[in-house]
Amino acid sequence: MTARNILAWSPSAIVFDCDGTLMDTERHWQEARNVTFRIFGLTPPAGFADRAKGVHYTECGALMADETGKPDLADDMAATLLTTFTALVDEDPVTIPGAPALVRQAARHIPLAVASNCPRTVVESCLDRAGLLGFFSHVVVAGEDVRPKPEPDVYSTAVRLCGVPPEGALAVEDSLTGMESARRAGLRVIGIGPCPPGPGAEQADLWVESLADRDLVCWARSHIGE
User: Fold this and answer.
1) How sure is the predictor about 1, in pLDDT bands with cuts at 50, 70 and 90?
2) Are 35 and 134 spatial neighbours (Cβ–Cβ below 8 Å)?
3) pTM
4) What is the domain range of residue 76?
5) 171, 158 in Cβ contact below 8 A?
6) d(CA 26, CA 175)
7) Do 104 and 64 fall into the same domain?
8) Residues 130, 84: one domain?
9) What per-residue string of b and e applies to 171-182 under the rule 16 or more CB within 10 Å gives b?
């Protein structure tokens, strides 16, 4: 699928990631990780932020503990990470540029869903405070019966609830972990951010610098709801 083809296509549903896609929360996760490392008297390993992006918070806690040689602290670090992140988001919920406009435009014509690795309370609280929660028909999060990204479960569940086949749905993601999840579920993918070198570039059908991208905005106005 090329950029030319995806911008000539009309999806039957759109499934959005939340962190870093709808809400500007990646900086909060980064700060929460740094605070958690400090609380436990540990130093973040080099490059840890890149490895942690898009990872479920329980797995992130385990990764933090393993990479610092403290595997027995995994559960405690995960709990501290989530508590710290939630407090930061409550203080400063900010949407990603272009996200509110795209969501409002699309919601007038097709079903929308959110697929996230975050706990439901965090996702719904963020979206509610940003005035976006009511535009989504479904919010799907990782849980007991839904494996976290990069497994395909959150996206497979979201498109099923939207009542469309995976090939008729579009995923909007900012992390390679989330893009892998969406592709494994059979969705087409728009990746937000600079196109990475190497195999990661193939995870998205189209890369845009932001949801305010001019071509993307024009596409949404002309192809969503056709």
Assistant:
1) very low
2) no
3) 0.82
4) 26-91
5) no
6) 10
7) no
8) no
9) bbbbbbbbbbbb
Give 21's Cβ-side CA count (13 Å radius).
Answer: 31
Angle between helices 153-162 and 176-184 (to 10 degrees): 60
Lateral strand order in the sheet of 188-192: 138-141, 112-116, 13-16, 169-173, 188-192, 206-208
Mean pLDDT score of the chain, rounded to an integer?
93
User: Is the CB of residue 109 less than 8 Å from the CB of residue 220?
Assistant: no
Tell me the pLDDT tens digit for each residue of 158-180: 999 999 999 999 999 999 999 99
Residue with tokens 């999806």: 11
Residue 74, classed as helix, strand or coil, is helix
Type of residue found at 151: E
Q: Is the pLDDT of residue 131 over 70?
A: yes
> Rounded distance, CA 15 to CA 19, Å?
13
Confidence (pLDDT) at 225: 61
SS3 (DSSP) at 92: coil
What residues are labeled active site? 17, 19
In this structure, the answer to whether residues 172 and 111 fall within a common structural domain is: yes
**Among candidate residues 25, 15, 21, the one with its CA nearest the CA of residue 139:** 15
Q: Is the pLDDT of residue 17 over 80?
A: yes
Which residues have a Cβ under 8 Å from the Cβ of 214 and sit 6 or more positions away?
none
101 and 190 inside one domain: yes
Count the domains in the chain.
2
